[in-house]
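#help-structures

NK: newbie question. if I give both the sequence and a SMILES, will the prediction place the ligand too? trying with pyridoxal-5'-phosphate
OV: yes, paste both and it writes out the complex. here, I ran yours:
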Amino acid sequence: MIDLKDNIARVQERIAEACRRVGRRPEDVKLVAVSKTVPPDRIRAAYDAGLRDFGENRVQEANAKRAALSDLTVTWHLVGHLQSNKAKLARELFHWAHSLDSLRLAQKLDQAAVSSGDRLPVLIEVNLGEEQTKSGVREQDVLPLAEQVSRLPTLELRGLMVLPPFFEDPEQARPFFGRLRDLAKTIEAANSPGVSMRELSMGMSHDFEVAIEEGATTVRIGTAIFGERK
Ligand SMILES: *Cc1c(COP(=O)(O)O)cnc(C)c1O
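OV: that's the protein plus ligand as structure tokens.
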């Protein structure tokens, strides 16, 4: 498990260096370790190395891992597209949802709340590249959706998430990250009640430093921590 500890330390250093370059504080960037396809014993090792936030993209897989890890105090983040018929189970499993992409899903997640005091922090996923194959809402649909989501009593809208098109050169992703930050600002400026846009979930293993320079408050990192997925 030596490699895992080293990988985590290296990622944390790189986060700190990226923050330093733009005058931000490393503690203002949350590291979510994306553990999809990673078996529970390696998640546990990452936990033992100090990580507390983990991301999964499939409800079934997260559910299967739950029993093996139930003794850990983990904050689980849903980072992948969710079908609304799985909202109930997702609500049981996850403490954050980064991938809200429709009003219907928001309503289902809201209705799945166990009690009215239980509020789920959510981010709206934006498809800035307008890629057919990707989920997320178009830029112009974000404000109307944000206003509708903010009226749902058991969801707590915290910001936006993006998964830009893949580029070999992470610098090419920079404009997408900048656009997400600007979109969040525009939406905040509309001053709709209950709409907070403080969280920007952006940046993965190959481009998280650029994302941090552009204002990411959460980075979602899999490969750089756990190694290549099979
Ligand atoms: C898999 C995944 C990640 C992590 O990707 P890496 O390139 O392995 O860091 C981040 N976000 C989402 C939505 C993912 O599906």
